[in-house]
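Why does this matter for the project? Reviewers at the last site visit asked to see concrete outputs rather than summary tables. In response, this paragraph embeds two records directly. Each consists of the residue sequence and, immediately after it, the corresponding structure tokens. Nothing has been edited or filtered.
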Amino acid sequence: MKQVILLSMLSAGISHAGFEPWTNKDGKTAELDLVNVVDKDGEKAGEFKMRSGATVTLKTTDLSEESAAKLKAWQPPAAAVEAKPSVFDGTLDGNLERLDGKKLKKCDDATKPAKYYLFYYTASWCPPCRAFTPTLVEWYEKNKNDNFELVLITSDRDEAAMENYAAEKKMPWPQLKHRKAEDFKKNFQHGVRGIPSLIVCDLEGKNLGNFRGNLPGITELIKD
């Protein structure tokens, strides 16, 4: 009865990251965050977090057939890999933005890569850049993994142009703030003679080359 009451109390709530629908055997559904699965009284039981911060334990026999099967199939998330430091941390930390709708906003979810940074030198006024960017967007979304992160380094004349370019091309990657771009170019001499350029560096800052015309080469490089 306790579980039924708890599910009823939560069923009107709104789900968010980490929460998903779970249905009890009486057909009541609530959004709960499954944090662990244990053995209880000879059967599987889930330890769930509620939005209030309280927890509730539900056994497979408390759940609908579909939710019970989902509980039995649950696997704990893989342990997070500690990010390795890089020579770029001092410049990038706190200075990245990402497209949110049609606006660039502070990027708090940028991942620090395990092996490589890809620096995309580009600008909205550059026709070859505009032609290449959709291909790069498609490649990034298909191949993104923990081994690399791509950061855009703009050559646009102002922040508005940089933002409009990001929105038009639906760029999924983080971008260095416009006011930090020139300092980045001075501090890290990547030998860029024209744009677009796609420079691949390891975490020690070694320049592995301009891969603008060799996306398959990067794909091979970033494999696990």
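We now turn to the second protein, recorded in exactly the same manner.
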Amino acid sequence: MDIITHTLSGVATGTVVMSFSPKGYKAKLGILSISGFGAALPDLDAISLWSRFDNLFGRLFNLEHSGKEIYFSKFWYSHHAFLHSILAAIIIALLIGSLTYLLSSKQKPKSFSGLISSLVNQKLILIGFLSGFIIHLIEDMPTPSCVWGGVNLFWPSHGYVGGTGDTWWWNNYDIFLIVITIIILNLVVSLLRPSNRLHPKKLTSVILIIGFSISLIQIKTRGFDFNYTGHTTRYDEFEVKSKELQRDILGPGIYNYMEKLDNKIPLNF
């Protein structure tokens, strides 16, 4: 799925996590930001497709393979490999928490018990990061197998999960709009005062679950098999079909607006 929907999906999960925070808007904004960052981070492995990758990293590290070969292979550092795993999410979250503690000037000297205490105090920030990271992995599972056959969810296991081809790589405008709706509704809820009948923690969670469920239904009822293994000569056909389905789902008005927005964004969306 595209990086914009991935990132905003992380923000959507972050709206739930921030509802558990008793702190002010600055802390809650921090949770939203780290959640979005976590959701974008798994695609950092796509740097191997950067036009200057071979001249910079290839020469610097004397790499045997070109960036394109790395991207479409199954090395641990290839796309959909280590950085698309639960273990990567946990390791990076712990690194972020540890660096935050080490760079903090509040406690000197540093100690292991101090680190554990700091990680506990940072739990909502770290949960936000983890939730964003993992939602990215889930969203990549219904995309085509391509050369990977899904995502290496349980790395260092060699098994890949997903790759079902229920939806195309991008132009999933319906999912994007659902994600935006979740964010808006949960931000509105977060501005309301808690009451016996209305509790932000529960309501934001319910909104996320409903939105996630609708997204799952949308993806599983596309009615077209986008799957392929290796590389495909039908790429343009799949791209056109994906947009046709979006027009049918959203209607001409909303679809035309989304397509205009898509054309203005210099990223695959």
